[in-house]
């Protein structure tokens, strides 16, 4: 009886060792199961990769990984949990100033601005998410603002861009404003993917929230004084000029000379920001959806 028991134990041990050995071999040979592609892309940086000219991930630093905007210094900068890794955490006194702006940014003809924001309602003025300054213009070249007006569930967003237009067509100082019936709903208290594009060829503007294209009236989406199809002139390509520096979380007036002090309503951005990107083209609907989903998936 003892002999049979010994034979059984020996057989069991050999079988167990063989099973473990085979299992180890399988683990070593098989590769991890790849992520399913989204919109034909595996990683957010693959989306319109040739057109990505600036990217800030805010993973414990203020660096632009594409080096389109460099030589940065932060004022009261802090970091918190982001949609991917860490995120920039703004405050009433914080902003990031960059001294060097590459020609890839200065010479933008079309543009896509993409970022994740998480913020709460505010009062007292307009908070600036970012600004590409202009030395001799109060409003700069390009910026996006959040106005402190309206109910706590809605956001009044203003965008501004400089245009290459004939002098007879006014533009500088005008805004693309999401107010009135176009105020953005349910934008506070959680992470939101905010993306807008301007196509210089077609003179069209588009806005996306969480990958969804917002239906806009033609007075906002078509950026021209009168319809080119009926003899009008489009605003055309972007025309940034006298570019000096770049700022995240504030206005050009927070940078000092050559600008005066900021007006009282010019507020620093107090929310969180993550994965800030600039493209030198207007992304397509498919690219926008893929970028949103991939970043949300932390890829």
UniProtKB/TrEMBL annotation:
Q: Which terms does the record give in the GO molecular function aspect? A: carbohydrate binding; hydrolase activity, hydrolyzing O-glycosyl compounds
PROSITE patterns per UniProt: PROKAR_LIPOPROTEIN (PS51257)
**The keyword Signal is annotated on this UniProt entry:** yes
* Top-rank taxon, per record: Bacteria
Q: Which residues form the signal peptide?
A: 1-22
TM stretches of this protein:
none
- Any one GO biological process: carbohydrate metabolic process
Keywords assigned by UniProt, alphabetized: Lectin, Signal
The question of whether ATP-binding is a record keyword is answered with no
- Protein name per the record: Concanavalin A-like lectin/glucanases superfamily protein
Q: Which organism is it from?
A: Flavobacterium saccharophilum
């Amino acid at each position: 009886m003892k002999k049979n028991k010994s034979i059984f134990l020996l057989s069991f041990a050999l079988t167990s060792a063989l099973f473990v050995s085979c299992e180890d071999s399988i683990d070593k040979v098989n590769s991890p199961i790849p992520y399913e592609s989204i919109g034909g892309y595996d990683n957010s940086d693959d989306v319109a990769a040739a057109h990505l000219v600036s990217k800030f991930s805010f993973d414990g630093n203020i660096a632009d990984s594409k080096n389109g905007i460099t030589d940065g210094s932060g004022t009261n900068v802090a970091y918190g949990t982001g949609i991917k890794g860490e995120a920039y955490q703004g405050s009433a006194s914080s902003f990031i100033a960059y001294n060097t702006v590459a020609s890839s940014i200065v010479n933008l003809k079309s543009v896509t601005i993409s970022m994740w924001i998480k913020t709460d309602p505010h009062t007292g003025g307009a908070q600036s998410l970012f600004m590409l300054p202009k030395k001799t213009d109060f409003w700069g070249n390009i910026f996006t603002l959040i106005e402190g007006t309206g109910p706590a569930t809605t956001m009044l967003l203003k965008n501004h861009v400089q245009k290459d237009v004939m002098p007879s067509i006014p533009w500088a100082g005008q805004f693309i404003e999401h107010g009135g019936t176009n105020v953005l709903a349910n934008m506070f208290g959680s992470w939101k993917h905010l993306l807008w594009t301007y196509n210089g060829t077609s003179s069209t503007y588009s806005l996306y929230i969480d990958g969804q294209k917002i239906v806009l009236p033609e007075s906002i989406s078509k950026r021209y004084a009168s319809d080119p199809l009926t003899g009008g002139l489009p605003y055309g390509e972007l025309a940034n000029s006298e570019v000096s520096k770049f700022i995240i979380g504030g206005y050009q007036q927070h940078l000092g000379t050559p600008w005066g002090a900021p007006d009282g309503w010019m507020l620093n951005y107090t929310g969180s920001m993550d994965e800030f990107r600039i493209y030198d083209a207007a992304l397509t609907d498919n690219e926008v959806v893929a970028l949103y989903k991939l970043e949300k998936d932390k890829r």
